[in-house]
Amino acid sequence: MSEEAPTQQQQPPEQEKKADEPPPAAPDAPQESCSSPAAEEKTFPCRALVLTGYGGYDKVKLQVKALSQPQLQAGEVLVRVKACGLNFAELLCRQGLYELLPAPPVTMGMECSGIIEAVGEEVTDRKVGDRVITLGKSGMWQELVVVSADRTFPMPEQMSFEEGAALPVNYLTAYMMLFEMASVRPGKSVLIHMAAGGVGIAVTQLCQTVQDVTVFGTASASKHETIAQGGVTHPIDYRTKDYVEEIRKISPKGVDIVLDPLGGSDTQKGFSLLKPLGTLIVFGAANCVTGQKKNLLAMAKTWYNQLSLTTLKLMQSNKAVCGFHLGYISDEQLISRTMFTLLELYSQGKIKPRIDSCYHFEEVADAMRRMHERQNIGKVILLPEPKKVEEKPKSNPEPEENVEKTEAAVDEKKEEAKEEVKAEKD
Ligand SMILES: NC(=O)c1ccc[n+]([C@@H]2O[C@H](COP(=O)([O-])OP(=O)(O)OC[C@H]3O[C@@H](n4cnc5c(N)ncnc54)[C@H](OP(=O)(O)O)[C@@H]3O)[C@@H](O)[C@H]2O)c1
User: Fold this and answer.
1) Which part of the chain is the Enoyl reductase (ER) domain (predicted)?
2) Which stretches within 81-146 are classed as H helix?
């Protein structure tokens, strides 16, 4: 099923784990080289979000690892993480539906930004103090990460750590689909679902770098004003309207490119909406996810309704059907090249990640809930820095439509708590 980024992340060596303890203040990590014998004996605490098993929010735990002094290999750097991105894929990871994540216990996280604290031998183009972005299949939701220097990308001066953490997965995915696979060109039309989410906003912004591209975007109604301002030409409320009919009313012949992160019957609808010579790219299966816990019925329904075609039918339809999965892209140069292109677009002011909200590591359940409950407009960010007691989560105002849903969710949580107490008594 779903997505994301290549090469396994190396973790600094870990000596012990203490689950859910308040973290001690982290002492300074090594500044230059990591190999002096005295330094080898030193350990320091490192906060990390660890998936401890598959299931609901409670399976992701904040742990404080006691790390030994990282021994950097040649070509590696040590990064102190300042901000991490939350991706839809991590909701799938938590439910055990993401095949690229190693089995729990495992530190989660596919992207982050931070400051280089130490460099290994043979690293010539990065130095201590550089602000960088990095990505991997897992292991990024941690205060300190060891990565290959080639996998770090210097952040433009004006870019915040939150923006840096929001960029890699969403924008690499959007860029590669639009420009490498679908070859979007002036005058074309694109349909993107989940248009107010991380990838959706990246797709919209990148479409605007090409002249006269029409963007159809499905999203909850409360988000339409924001996504229209962001460049979606025709926002469509998929919850109350048949988006196929809505698109046909505006463009009877359909669209040139459909980007489908939903799967199941939506892939069939996407295929039907394509103009001749159009391209459908399937890149997710969000329809499998209906809430906190795995939903076997939704999975079965999505699987049962998936698009099924013979090559003869495909030939006769004059349409292209593609699949995209960033996690299976092993061409490091392609990733690097695209990252540098994206950073250049950022510096030119052509793209800018929209940050929906920031949560501290200890609030990871709330961050995931925000995405499950479809409240986010843009990227949800996780911050390793401990939460100060009085601080409230920083987020854009709640979309009105979801307020009721949130209240319903609170009620639901109360019910769940009651059930748990009852079960314990029994
Ligand atoms: N293949 C790849 O390499 C790759 C890489 C990145 C992402 N993806 C896929 O792209 C999609 C978007 O990912 P993202 O990280 O950018 O997330 P996101 O779009 O920020 O996801 C949350 C938003 O999606 C909408 N949504 C639609 N169906 C949903 C569902 N079943 N559960 C929760 N929200 C749902 C909601 O907005 P509305 O209510 O407004 O619709 C929600 O606010 C996902 O399917 C993901 O798996 C694939």
Assistant:
1) 55-382
2) 88-94
**Contact of 353 with 156, CB cutoff 8 Å:** no
- Reference 4, options 108, 143, 149; nearest CA is 108
Beta-bridge partner residues of 61: 50
Q: What is the mean pLDDT of residues 15-32?
A: 36
Pocket (CB within 6 angstroms of ligand 1): 2-4, 87-89, 169-170, 173, 194, 196-200, 219-220, 223, 261, 283-284, 286, 289, 324-326, 371-372, 374, 376
* Cα–Cα distance, 106 to 86 (Å, whole number): 16
Which amino acid residue places its CA nearest to atom 27 of ligand 1?
194
| Cα three-residue angle 37-38-40, rounded to 5 degrees | 65
- Nearest CA residue ID for atom 33, ligand 1: 372
pLDDT of 47? 97
For range 104-124, the mean pLDDT: 97
Which helix (H) or strand (E) covers residue 109, if one does?
none
278 token code pair? 């159009």
Q: What CA–CA distance (Å, rounded) separates 181 from 373?
A: 31
How high is the pLDDT of residue 367?
Answer: 98
pLDDT at 301 > cutoff 70: yes
Provide the angle, in degrees to the nearest 10, between the axes of the packed helices 243-250 and 265-273.
10
Amino acid 423: pLDDT: 34
Task: Calculate how far, in angstroms, residue 197's C-alpha sits from the geometric centre of ligand 1.
Answer: 6
Q: Whose CA is closest to 327, among 95, 1, 104?
A: 1
Structure tokens at 85: 């991105």
> With bands split at pLDDT 50, 70 and 90, how would you rate the model's confidence at 12?
low
Q: Which residue in this structure is represented by tokens 């906060």?
A: 47
CA 314, CA 320: separation in Å to the nearest integer?
A: 8
**Do the beta carbons of residue 192 and residue 204 sit within 8 Å?**
yes
Q: What angle do CA 74, 78, 83 make, to 5 degrees?
A: 145
Q: Which positions ≥6 away from 332 have C-beta within 8 Å? A: 6, 7, 150, 151
Ranking 31-35, 375-379, 414-418 by mean pLDDT, the lowest is 31-35
CA distance 221 to 193: 13
Would you call the peptide bond into 154 cis, given omega within 30 degrees of 0 as the criterion? no
371 CA distance to ligand 1 centroid (A)?
8
Q: Which structure tokens are listed for 322?
A: 């593609």
Q: Any idea which residue has 């004996």 for tokens?
A: 41
